[in-house]
Known about the structure:
The chain is α/β, with parallel strands linked by helices. It has three domains: about 200 residues, 3-Layer(bba) Sandwich (FAD/NAD(P)-binding domain), CATH 3.50.50; about 100 residues, 2-Layer Sandwich (D-Amino Acid Oxidase, Chain A, domain 2); about 50 residues, no CATH class. The chain is built from 13 helices and 16 strands. Strands 1, 2, 6, 7, 8, 9, 15 and 16 form an eight-stranded mixed sheet that branches. Helix 1 links the parallel strand 1 and strand 2. Helix 1 runs parallel beside helix 9. The chain is globular and about 75 Å long.
Amino acid sequence: MRTVEFDAVVVGTGPAGSASALVAAKKGLKVLVIERGPEPGSKTVSGAMIRIDEVGKVFGTDIPIERQVKRFKVIIANGGDRVNLDFPVSGLGTVGRRKFDAWMSSKAEAAGAVVITKTSVTGIKRTEGGIKVLTDRGEISTGRVVLAEGANPILSMSLRIRDDLTPEDAVQTAKEVYSMPQTEVTKRMGLSADTDGEVWRVIYVNKTFGAGFLYTYKDAIAIGAGAPMKSMIEKKYQPNVMIEDFKEDLGLKQLLSGTSLREYSAKIIPESGFPYCKAGIDNVYLAGDAIGLVNPLTFDGIGPAIASGVIAGNAVAEGWDPRKYEEALKYDPLIKSVISSRKLVKQLLSTGEKYVTLLPEIMKRWASGDLYGIRELVSENAWTILKDLTLLMQVRK
């Protein structure tokens, strides 16, 4: 590749990268999007749940949804003790990330952005005339850069915009996807139609405190679990063992019997980031997972990533300074929710196990009519509950 010029270069074709490219291209900029994988979405695995309105207002309503989520289940599990809640929902859908990411990238291309794949960015350096983006295929001259490089932000760290993740600031996750016919997914999950879906959120204790999920796709069921990385390192707990324990605890092996494992992946999810790290420097803007915009309390990373990408696209188009970009991030409702939840998330990493034990015990005592016993349990844990409620009241939108 010879040296070429673009108004803006975006690194990454995930939700944040494609959103920023789409916005900047719509504003008339000549935008280049660089993807390391063979195609957009090729480095991601399986899928996720989305809030349809969050995606639709940026990319359009023709979202490649696998299933419309009609039932949502919350499970609190501590060994044999368990509390289950399920309720109808609307406005939610499951997506396969390969197809979903490719669709978002196509929207950016339709707006005028140029997307190149199989290209690795090896560095970024400043010149008198702007910025040089170094790749394994040549150099690109540009005025502005969006780094939407995901949870392992090597370029951002090389520019000293942010530090590397530490075990205290990350969760280790593992995910498995099991293939089966579409009608079999519907049958096994007890759904009313082949287009209906169900999602689980699980808070549990096994060898460590953790959280898990179950998603239904058109022709597959995905399960996953995660736990604080620091705890997993201390206990020498491997991700593949964690997900096996999760399946055992939740009785999922019977649900998945006779199916074939299509995907296994392990991923680190940031639990810290902006505003405890910078979101950019002059003419370089970070977005999405690169600055830890994941809300563990709502299991939502795609919504905040898209929101930050839109803001980054506007910043690129209008040449914002880093301070204006960071202020705009703080003002966005989805990102504000992530930021204001950080203290509570950190607290729950240490107190969450207590709730997993407490809630099933309260329900058992209620069933037996032991209201005084409930009072004792609440009284014993009142200080912890009060502190966590205080942090919850600080969450903003």
